[in-house]
Amino acid sequence: MFHRRHFLGIEGLTKDELLFLLSTAESFREISEREVKKVPTLRGKTIINLFYEPSTRTRTSFEIAAKRLSADAINITAAASSVAKGETLLDTARNLVAMRPAALVVRHPCSGAPHLLARLVDCPVINAGDGMHEHPTQALLDMMTIRAYKGEIAGLTVAIVGDLLHSRVARSNVLALTTLGAQVRLVGPPTLLPPEFRLWGVEVCTDLRRGLAGVDVVMALRLQRERQARNFLPSIEEYARHFCITPDALAAAKDDVLIMHPGPMNRGVEIDSQVADGPYSVILEQVTNGVAVRMALLYLLATQEREATEEQAEVGLHAPRRHAGALA
Amino acid sequence: MKIVIYGGTVIDPANDLAAPRDVLIEDGVIRAVVPPQSGLATGDMRIDASGLIVAPGLIDMHVHLREPGYEYKETVLTGTQAAVAGGFTAVACMANTNPVNDNGAVTRYIRERAQAANLARVFPIGALSKGLRGEELAEIGEMVSEGIVAVSDDGCPVMDTHLMRRALEYCSMFHLPISVHEEDSYLAAGGVMNEGPTALRLGLKGIPNAAEEVMVARDIALARLTGGRLHIAHVSTKEAVALIRQAKAEGLPVTAEVTPHHFTLTESAVEGYNTNAKMAPPLRSLADVEAVKEGLRDGTIDVIATDHAPHHRDEKEVEFDQAAHGVVGLETALPLALRLVHEGVLSLPDMLRTLTVNPARILGLPYGTLSPGAPADIVIFDPHRRWTVEARNLRSKSKNTPFDGWDLTGKVLWTLVQGRVVYAEEEADRRR
Amino acid sequence: MDQVAIQRALTRIAHEILEKNRGTDQLAIVGIHTRGVYLAQRLVAAIERVEGVSVPSGEIDITLYRDDVGRSRARPEVRGTTIPFCVDDLRIVLVDDVLYTGRTVRAALDALIDFGRPRAIQLAVLVDRGHRELPIRADYVGKNLPTARDEHVYVRLSERDGVDEVVIE
Questions:
Q1: Which of A32, A37, A41, A305 to mutate to test the interface with C (most CBs of C within 10 A)?
Q2: ∠C36-C37-C38 over CA atoms, to 5°?
């Protein structure tokens, strides 16, 4: 079962919690296959998507998930909000929570921003990606996708390729995969692959072909083009020469290897189009599963009572009555 | 006015004294330190120090009082209120105010504010470079005539090696030490905590030990080149400790300090994105904590200094990346230092040496001792009293301490400056 | 009720369903999670024994349609809905173990209607214990069990509980 008030990361989740989240998400998949893609569960509740970073996929996915549960979804993006007027994150969140949403979905460029809100704001918080820290709903949808094709995750070997240093997707996936019993291999250039990752119980490898040998799943990561400017790489072209996932590089992987990418893709940089569009690619499946994962989380988190509800009800109802009594 | 402090144990590291002694203070000056029952004439005021330690007033050679310019964080008045509550009778304050203390007028202003507050003694430290920009030397001579005791660009590491060389040369004319914040800004760029497994897991950009090490190595080379007096502020890494140890063995004029938080906490304090554990230099690994303790034990590190860095709640209740660096330290320094005594890292006299005579000598101050004739700056503390830190009860205007809720042992009961009681714990009042 | 009684009741209900709907044409059976699903499977088997036809069947989870979402601390587990046929114009028999307040059936009706427009929806239950809070009645009842509100009715089925029985405690 899952009894947490917030969903901030994969870190700290038990195997049982992860499996429960995945099976709950799998139950929600069917709703998106119906003609009427809507259930009344969160009718009358409001979900606020507070996004401080540009995002199409994740924001849309959360919005669709909320709407398919009959919640009212409100999107707030950094450019359109009070951020431009200098309001702090905490003030913005407190103001939004004063309007009584059932959950706050937060995407922020600073690691730990959702944790700050979870600590100081009275509302369930869902982390939709924080800085270089975690992107836990992405990891769940990736696990769900792998399970759909491979059954068990335990015993699989999964390679994650690219900019591991800056990737929240990689961190969440490493945590989820290792908790569920997969072998993980991280592949990338040494400037983007800190050796401390070994402490997480994973292999690190700077050679793509060796890294892909015998793997069941390959996850490519998006390479941010600004890495070149900060001297992590001489050039994007040189990165592609060494780390682009091509049919040739995949030769040593298992025959039924799955190809995944969290999107948005840089075709020809981290992944070759032949691979991205090839028969083993499940990239669009990932997107479909993303909606189910987010529906499951919204169902589990947005149906909580507000923590202070009872107390407030007491103040709201009894205090005036006592006052009236005094007048009488 | 005569004050007699009787029944206590006097620890005066400058005179290698640690024994039951009574102290007679007359007109603000130590008159006599004598064995108990030596028949000291009755004073105008008698302080019963039985079971307590009587020591020279503590000296903190690294604080930020924030005035002028950041009075919402701290003022000279609130900062010195915090100081005397922590047993400090003298503090040296860094130059990163607004305007920067890079000229005599600002230095004079700070001293005037200190006189008005009339609590702890305040010794300004002048900026090394104009505006702390690391480009041109500040008006050092002018500030010396207004009373600075050191120069420092603390908070802004001096990346220009040539400027650093000339500063060391120039300051030698005034026998001024240069206190250096050792962090290579290129290597540390964007970093918000120690580089390592914790930073990787939290997704926070790390600052490697090497950022401190390369700067310490550079400045030791410059001290060797120039003969200038180098004081390494807030040492945080085992590599820096090793370099300083080597430099001292070579006989170079290098001294060093460590903060209570750097010998007490590791990077794990950052867990949960605790912005009160964000500081520069960052909290390091356990191996580094062990190394700075060893540095204290073997004398490589001369001084415990707080780097008291008050910040407003609004500057800490933000995203970790955007939070201000630093913690307040004046009111928790002594009990944290006493932990080193309990752990056996330092004897009580040696611990007090790092907080009294050592910083006094580095700054060229006549304090930090109970020698007859010295100004009567005294702290009286109960080394066994347990208390719980409550941030909201700190006297500092800012409450950014990582030690909120900690149970600490050792409490200051009285603080005297120039023979005047500037702080008395309530309970201590009752013992009078 | 013991195993034999349950079996007899289900056999009778199967016959009643066939009688009322004049055979298996356009007929489908949908069980409500959890025990309604097993009862639905038994009814499908019973109908097949009589008519030699296996009618389409599905299962429905009403968690997402409950009217008490967020009113209790517990968040019921979502177990998934499978309706592997088009419901339009079918006569659908909803199957549950116990009919009590009627709220579960209300939710199941809403859930079923989200899949299309059946010609008719009928309700079959193993036990009707009374105390309705909504205007809902069953078309097929295994047994009427008068109960007090503070009593619990437990239906145990061998597929899940290892034994077939209905007890009041």
A1: A41
A2: 90
SS3 B183: coil
pLDDT-derived band of residue B432, with 50, 70 and 90 as boundaries?
low
Say how many C-beta atoms besides its own lie within 10 A of residue C161's C-beta.
13
CB contact set of B161 (below 8 Å; sequence gap of 6+): B218, B222
Name the interface residues of C facing A (CB cutoff 8 Å). Answer: 61, 63-66, 69-71, 73, 75, 77-82, 110-111, 114-116
Domain annotation for chain C: domains and CATH numbers = 3-68+79-168 (3.40.50.2020)
* Contact call for residues A47 and A103 (beta carbons, < 8 A): yes
Alpha-carbon gap, residue A262 to A283, rounded angstroms: 7
Residue A219 CB-half CA count within 13 A: 29
Q: Domain B2-54+374-431, what architecture?
A: Roll (2.30)
**For residue range B137-179, what is the model confidence (pLDDT) as tens digits?**
999 999 999 999 999 999 999 999 999 999 999 999 999 999 9
Three-state helix/strand/coil letters over B99-139? CCCCCHHHHHHHHHHHHHHCCCEEEECECCEHHHCCCCECC
Active site positions of B, annotated: 307
Radius of gyration from C-alpha coordinates of chain B = 21
Set of chain B residues whose Cβ sits within 8 Å of the Cβ of A199:
197
The nearest alpha carbon in chain A to B274 belongs to A116
- Percent helix, strand, coil in chain A, to 5, is 45, 15, 40
Q: How far is B397 from chain A (nearest CA, A)?
A: 22
CA distance A290 to A62: 8
- What is the rounded average pLDDT for all residues in chain B? 96
Structure tokens at A75: 């999107």
- CA A227/CA B354 separation, integer angstroms: 46
Check residue A222 and report its DSSP letter.
P
Instruction: Name the CATH topology of B57-363.
Output: TIM Barrel (3.20.20)
| Whole-structure pTM value | 0.90
Do residues A217 and A260 lie in contact, with contact meaning Cβ atoms separated by under 8 Å?
yes
Say if residues A6 and A117 touch (Cβ distance below 8 Å).
no
Domain ranges of chain B: 2-54+374-431, 57-363
**Tens-place pLDDT, residues B7-35:** 999 999 999 999 999 999 999 999 999 99
Contact predicate C105/C67, CB 8 Å: no
B131 has pLDDT over 50:
yes
Indicate yes or no: CB of C81 within 8 angstroms of CB of A299.
no
| B190 at A interface, C-beta within 8 A | no
CB atoms inside a 10 Å sphere around CB A190: 11
pLDDT tens sequence across B173-204:
999 999 999 999 999 999 999 999 999 999 99
Number of neighbouring beta carbons within 10 Å of residue B209: 23
Contact A53, A129 (CB under 8 A): yes
CA proximity to C95, closest of C125, C65, C140: C125
What confidence score (pLDDT) does residue A311 get?
Answer: 40
Are B14 and B356 a contacting pair, CB within 8 Å?
Answer: yes
Strand order in the sheet with B407-417: B17-20, B9-12, B53-56, B378-388, B407-417, B420-424
Asked if residue A47 has pLDDT above 90, the reply is yes
Q: How far apart are CA A82 and CA A105, in angstroms?
A: 17
What is the token pair recorded at A132? Answer: 């270089």
The Cα–Cα gap between B431 and B184 comes to 52
The SS3 of residue A51 is strand
Give the neighbor-by-neighbor strand order of the sheet with B121-124.
Answer: B58-63, B88-93, B121-124
% pLDDT > 70, chain B: 98
